[in-house]
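Translate structure to sequence.
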């Protein structure tokens, strides 16, 4: 009984260790290079049947080659085990959001904290304006619960430019939240390049994001 009560009372702050996978550590991120595209495509193919809509591989490849997002490669012991992307859009109302896109992990390394590290690094690359930063995503249904752990709210569904309807998620962050995320990564030896200023701007909303 007391264990149950303690679980109810335990803080659910997105960056608490109790809310993060203990395996999310010792991961190095680097910017994707042209030679990494085939690796990204292989990871996509390995995840396609279980996580992504059919027939979108060519769209993914085109986005990689056109530089539509800042794509980071997750590595352990110099092996590329996942990729994740970020880009910005600005709404007609002038609201700027950083979009999580192309998040995926090699199936051989899933449930080893890589997806958690990908979420953390994308948050850590952001910078708040007037103490506010907004992250958004069009998620595959199976990843909604995962992203809710980081504070994303899913209140509606949106039809994307590929004609598929996805859950739409949004995360509002202060600069202190972003700084805390960076501190978490430092403690866990999650290393990444400081290249948030290279996140590209898009005219339209990006495609679906996985973990």
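Result:
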């Amino acid at each position: 009984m007391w264990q149950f009560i303690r679980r109810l009372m335990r803080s659910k702050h997105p960056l608490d260790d109790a809310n993060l996978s203990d395996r999310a550590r010792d991961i190095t991120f680097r910017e994707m290079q042209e030679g990494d595209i085939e690796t990204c495509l292989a990871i996509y193919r390995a995840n396609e049947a279980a996580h992504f809509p059919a027939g979108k591989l060519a769209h993914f490849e085109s986005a990689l080659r056109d530089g539509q997002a800042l794509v980071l490669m997750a590595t352990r012991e110099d092996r590329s085990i996942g990729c994740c992307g970020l880009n910005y859009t600005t709404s007609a109302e002038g609201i700027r959001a950083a979009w999580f896109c192309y998040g995926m992990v090699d199936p051989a390394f899933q449930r080893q904290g890589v997806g958690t590290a990908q979420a953390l690094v994308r948050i850590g690359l952001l910078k708040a304006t007037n103490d506010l930063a907004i992250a958004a995503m069009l998620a595959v249904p199976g990843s909604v619960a995962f992203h809710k752990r980081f504070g994303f709210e899913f209140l509606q569904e949106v039809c994307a430019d590929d004609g598929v309807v996805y859950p739409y998620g949004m995360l509002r962050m202060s600069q202190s939240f972003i700084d805390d995320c960076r501190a978490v990564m430092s403690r866990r030896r999650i290393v990444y390049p400081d290249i948030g200023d290279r996140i590209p701007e898009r005219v339209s909303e990006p495609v679906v994001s996985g973990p």
